[in-house]
């Protein structure tokens, strides 16, 4: 072959390189995705703490309206969500977190030092874990159908089994495609669950705020100006608690939805057409970080 | 020969779809009653909306708390509460327009009240 042949070939090779004929490197995007899932899972604990704290204030307001204080027992103040109910939700998020971390390692990213340890711990926990127990703690609403429970349980087991039984494989893209539906099913149920919690919490707050206001209207003529001021301040404090708990749960729900959307496009980061997927991952990561900062600020303010 | 005694109803889960629709309807009504409470400008109107809102909230809390089966003491107690609330909802519908002057909101509240009564009939069939 003469030099003219290579001269003709060179622009084609150059164009191929520019257009991405060389396999793109998915590792940075998958790492970003895994980091965002981890931040979301960690923030969830803070979110539930914030909900419990707000609910406690609401309960105090409700009890303050009771006329029969002799019957009051501090033990009657129950948390909005039981410890088991919170743990069930955090466990589900932990499954997603571990899945994303393993995926990131599959793509060639460095493993966190405790990832193997976390997997071993998870595997032994899964052996003891009664999925029905998680399901029962998570899905107590009349609004969740038996079919939805089945879908969720299957999805959770599929992802959990992959985490435990994963062989060393380079087939990260194939895994992402196979896990698309289970991850979507888990996120979908979790998102509905958070929406339901939001609705219940909101209804409870609204009712107590309304009751407070109605009681205030009736007692208004008998109150001194400083007492009126105090009562109005209490009502305003309750409103702030309502809004805080509201945005807490809604932002967590939104992060879970974004997680599913980003994961649905995650296999695109293995192709040359990865702009959209990268944007979705960036959106998810940015939101996860905003939520994390918000919970941190709640922690420092309290 | 005397007629045989009617069979005693056995407990059974409530129709899940009818129950879901009823809970959705009550949640919407509870939201609207809250809006109506804050829109009302007299103590009587506020008291009325607050009383209804609390009663509906209590029913919602019971429904959300766990499985309820027909022909159980819990069902009978809940049905009595629902019947009492429905009677009240039925009687106040004509007064809502006099309590709040936002016509669109008043219409929504009345519509949600009527819907709540209709949906309850599909859940509490015994």
Give a structural overview:
The complex is a heterodimer of chains A (302) and B (126). In chain A, helix 3 packs antiparallel against helix 7 (172-219). By secondary structure, chain A is mostly helical. The longest helix of chain A is centred in the middle third of the chain and has 48 residues, at 172-219. Chain A has nine helices and no strands. Chain A is elongated and about 75 Å long. By secondary structure, chain B is mainly α. Chain B is built from five helices and no strands. Chain B has helices spanning 16-39, 43-65, 73-92, 96-99, 103-123. In chain B, helix 1 packs antiparallel against helix 5 (103-123), helix 2 runs antiparallel to helix 3 (73-92) and helix 3 packs antiparallel against helix 5 (103-123). The longest helix of chain B has 24 residues, at 16-39. Chain B is elongated. The model of chain B has no long low-confidence stretch (mean pLDDT 89). The interface between A and B is medium-sized, with 17 and 23 residues.
Write down the overall mean pLDDT of chain A: 80
Shape of chain B: elongated
> How helix-rich are the residues of chain A, as a percent range?
over 70%
Give the low-confidence spans of chain A: 15-21
What is the radius of gyration of chain B computed over CA atoms, rounded to a whole number of angstroms? 17 Å
Largest sheet of chain B: none
Number of strands of chain A: 0
Give Rg of chain A in angstroms.
Answer: 25 Å
> Ends of chain A: how far apart?
77 Å
Task: Output mean pLDDT of chain B.
Answer: 89
- How far from one another are the termini of chain B? 28 Å
* H/E topology pattern of chain A: HHHHHHHHH
Low-confidence stretches of chain B: none
Helical stretch count of chain B?
Answer: 5
Count of separate DSSP helical elements of chain A: 9
Major sheet of chain A: none
The helix fraction of chain B, in percent, is over 70%
The global form of chain A is elongated
- Structural class of chain A, please? mainly alpha
